Amino acid sequence: MLLLIALSLLLIILFFFYLHKDQALTFLEAKYSELAKLERNEHELNRLRDDFTAMMVHELRSPLAVMKGSADLLLKEDSTLSVEQKYTLLSQIEDSSGDLLQIVTDLLDVSKIESGRLEIKKERGNINDLLEDESEYYEALAHEKGVVVNVLLEGDLPEVSFDRDGVKRVMNNLLSNALKFTESGGKVEISSRKIDGTFIEVCISDTGRGVPEGMKGKLFNKFVQVDTSDGDSGKGTGLGLAIAKGIVEAHGGRIWIEDNKPKGSKFLFVLPLS
Amino acid sequence: MSKKILVVEDDQSFFNLVSTALTIRGYDIVHVSDGNVAVARVKEEKPDLVLLDIILPGISGLDILRELKESEDTKHIKVIMLTNFGTDDNISKAVELGADDYFMKYNIVPSELPEKLAPYLGEASDSSVSVTN
Description:
The structure holds two protein chains of two kinds. By secondary structure, chain A is α+β, with helices and mostly antiparallel strands. Chain A has helices spanning 2-19, 21-76, 83-114, 127-145, 164-180, 213-216, 240-250; strands spanning 123-125, 148-153, 160-162, 187-195, 199-206, 254-259, 265-272. Chain A has a five-stranded mixed sheet. The longest helix of chain A is centred in the first third of the chain and has 56 residues, at 21-76. Chain B is an alpha/beta fold. Chain B has a domain at 58-123: Response regulator (Rossmann fold), CATH 3.40.50.2300. Chain B is 34% helix and 22% strand. Chain B is built from five helices and seven strands, in the order E-H-E-H-E-E-E-H-E-H-E-H. In chain B, the strands form two sheets. A five-stranded parallel sheet of chain B has the order 2-1-3-6-7, with helices on both faces. The A-B interface holds A 54, 57-58, 61-66, 68-70, 72-73, 76-77, 80-82, 85, 88-89, 92, 95-96, 230-232, 234-235 and B 11, 13-14, 16-17, 20-21, 24, 55-60, 84-85, 87, 105-106, 108-111, 131, 133.
């Protein structure tokens, strides 16, 4: 009797499924497609995690190799090294430990930005003063590389509330990138202007190799580096622009990239006047 | 005449390290920081040994290695690859292309580098090269 009931139930289910087979198949296909998408996302996440690990290993090992090696020579070859050689090795230890510290600070800052805990200490001041200091520092570096730096700051900019250290970090990041990607004979330009009495705009343009169209949208995401046709993704942690974006947005501003005609890139950011 | 070692390395600090360790042992060091001109410089300098970084701006050290080992002028020159992130793929590719050895940068002990390189320069590893200061 029980068997008969079970068989009847099975027949009813099969009949019901037959009647609605199109909907059932569509439902199954949609579920399968969802599963495939989840699997692709997981693969993409795994790939990003592997790329990040590889990049961090490289970035951390480079300064560590220099520190360890410099210390080895200073300890073992003390009697053979000249004073200049010792000075260079000691300077390399100092510089490399600074690089390591910066990587750790950047990682912490990205984590603070993501959880909305980045601290901004705003003070009123003229942003041109900061831009002039930064330009002066980078002019010397650019000169060594054979790159010209032009500074075009609007004369009577109103004062604005900003975090001096934070905006300095944004400028350092944008200027070091501009210089890194501009070949000898090229030009980097720093300009500032007031827009509609509501914003102050700062622009850093270069005549470097530019950013491929497909990269522009994700350039300010963490761990993203410009991938160019020659296969050189550059060195660095890929955190700088993500931090710059976090700092500018914590001021209520915006940062973006444009093409610099006929060649290179323009990085612009605006800070609100009020 | 001192042996000549050409170092293809874009990281100035790491180059200083290698260069210091080798010049104090009397080797003649040539620095090439731009990988794109590395093959031309090897042909011009005719070094006894090439130390070649894998990750270089604009070009891979593996491509430079391939070119060096394919050219009649340079294929006899010993090449040691340098890197801070050696994947199995990279190592087997370098060996396949004819690299004579593969050094991880972070494992290099500069004071021991002359001894490590001696066999590739046709010197006994305990032989002392004249020390210059």
